[in-house]
Design a protein that fits this description.
With about 550 residues, the protein is an alpha+beta fold. Helix content is about 35%, strand content about 25%.
Length: about 550
């Protein structure tokens, strides 16, 4: 039974850790059950009419509007009334020395900038042609002046087109309220989120098990993912739009409509693997006077900040994988674990210590099950000689062997599955902790102590993975086993396999595993020293 359990765990680990890569090689994507939704091809005309030619103002510092808050540095271009830079002051790149702030707007060639309001039928390589006036040149917000706005206006006297964009900023928020008024439009417009606003352009977010990267929408209560590599043509999603976003592992940008009737258009620009994707909101009526209000969020995937918006943007945080149909179970487990982890960090001010304390709590909760498992394995070990004798005696009669084995278990009150239950129940907990420690931005660049300066990154000296392997070997040595010596020697390869596997895993996850192993060893030593002695002592007269 123990042999089958170990094989099951090894297969589970292999599938769990390599499934995303295998699926990617096969051209698929890793998604949750509710993300699949039918899409329809865009009805955009194959031949695009040229936009009206308007003399552009040079896009230099004299044509920019700057905004600075405690959290953001933003540059707005009067050409098209678009966002040219969106810098997160409190988040830094991992692979740059000195560390540079995260910049969410990618300055790529022909990249469409956020808030571009293009005529429907324009390509992403058609830059906005309107030149706006601005209400102010600079806007600085702080605690004393916590709210301010930028008003951009454009008027085309010949066509009587008028467009006004008002951006309302707050000092302590990554969200901006956007109000758009239009009148006299010659043709419908699409409001774009941009080709690279919030999408991976940084060295620290594109490796490993990052969950879904790309355009994501919540439409009519359903989450929809569009694989950027499969966008061979523009795709349009119909239905009530709660929000439309571009996301990666740690950051996202999103449009959140405040009323109105919209549909989402997703378009890819550039090479097949470039992830240069634009999300647009269609639905600004042709030629009519319209008032459009929506929220723009562009920042980190902080759980509290996203949840406070009240539109379920926190669902973009990947708390669970779809493995063996257990996605829902894993997510239900992950969210309370994440809440406990943050509660512990609030008092310890160190996520490494919080991980250790959380591991202790989880381990304590499993003490009754692990103790029962230990007793079951010891009982199985005690009757192993009788099991071997039966296997030898009835080696040519499987049915009789099964009956004799069942009778043997009954007489000795042994449950052959008793040692498996705790391990099986702990698999969702482990996967949930893996997702919490691997995908939440709270651990990004969070230090522990000594050489561990970022719990979301691998141990640069591989000390923690090696210690993990040593603790696994020690745990195996102390664990009761009914395997023959050849099988026992073979199982010594498992610590080596997992050590190699964990070399590039986040140090926070390896720290959890080491702590869990040490607690297991301590529990086994305690059980062998006190439980077995108490059961073997003769009863007093």
């Amino acid at each position: 039974m123990e042999k089958r359990l170990i094989i099951f765990l090894i297969i589970s680990f292999v599938i769990m850790f390599f499934y995303p890569y295998i699926l990617k090689k096969l051209g698929g994507q890793l998604t949750a059950p509710e993300v699949q939704r039918s899409t329809t091809s865009s009805s955009l005309p194959s031949e695009v009419k040229d936009s009206p030619k308007i003399n552009q103002v040079p896009d230099d510092a004299s044509n920019e509007v700057s905004v600075e808050t405690d959290l953001l540095k933003v540059l707005i271009s009067r050409n098209g009334g678009t966002i040219k830079n969106w810098e997160l002051k409190n988040y830094r790149l991992n692979d740059h020395q000195p560390a540079k702030p995260i910049q969410l707007v990618y300055q790529g060639e022909d990249a469409i900038y956020p808030l571009s309001l293009l005529p429907e039928g324009s390509t992403l390589k058609s830059p906005p042609m309107e030149v706006y006036t601005s209400s102010t040149k600079h806007l600085v917000l702080d605690k004393q002046h916590s709210t301010g706005d930028i008003i951009l206006n454009y008027t085309d006297p010949a066509a009587k087109e008028q467009i006004s964009k008002r951006l309302i900023f707050q000092d302590a928020a990554y969200s901006v309220t956007l109000e758009i008024e239009t009148s006299g439009l010659r043709q419908p417009r699409t409001l774009y989120l941009g080709t690279n606003f919030g999408i991976v352009q940084w060295g620290d977010s594109s490796r490993g098990f990052t969950g879904f990267i790309g355009p994501t929408q919540l439409i009519n209560g359903e989450i929809i993912h569009d694989d950027p590599n499969k966008l061979t043509h523009p795709v349009v999603h119909q239905g009530p739009v709660q929000w439309s976003a571009l996301q990666d592992k740690y950051f996202l940008s999103a449009f959140v409509p405040q009323g109105g009737n919209y549909q989402v258009q997703v378009t890819r620009q550039g090479e097949p693997n470039s992830h240069e994707v634009a999300v647009g909101l269609q639905g600004i009526p042709f030629g009519e006077k319209t008032d459009t209000r929506l929220l723009l969020y562009a920042g980190p995937k902080e759980y509290d900040a996203l949840r406070a918006l009240g539109v379920h943007l926190e669902e973009t945080i990947d708390f669970g994988w779809f493995i063996f149909g257990s996605w829902v179970v894993v997510r239900i487990v992950a969210q309370p674990l994440f809440a406990v982890l943050r509660f512990l960090e609030h008092y310890t001010h160190n996520y490494g210590i919080a991980i250790i304390l959380l591991t202790v709590i989880v381990r304590v909760l499993f003490i009754p099950l692990t103790h029962k498992s230990y007793k079951s394995m010891k009982a199985m070990q005690a009757i192993q000689p009788k099991v071997a004798a039966l296997q030898k005696k009835y080696k040519d009669n499987k049915e009789q062997l099964n009956r004799e084995m069942l009778e043997l278990y009954r007489l000795h009150k042994v449950n052959p599955f008793g040692g498996c239950l705790p391990s099986v129940l702990q698999v969702p907990v482990f996967v949930a902790l893996f997702n919490v420690l691997y995908t939440t931005i709270e651990l990004r660049q969070a230090p522990f102590m000594f050489w561990i300066r970022d719990l979301s990154e691998k141990d640069p000296y591989y000390i923690l993975p090696i210690l993990m392997g040593i603790t696994m070997v020690l745990q195996q040595k102390l664990q009761p086993s009914q395997m023959d010596p050849k099988q026992a020697r073979l199982m010594l390869l498992m610590p080596v396999f997992l050590t190699v596997l964990f070399l590039n895993f986040p140090s926070g996850l390896v720290l959890y595993w080491i702590t869990n192993n040490l607690l297991s060893v301590g529990q086994q030593v305690f059980t062998m020293k006190y439980f077995e002695r108490s059961t073997n002592e003769p009863a007093k007269a």
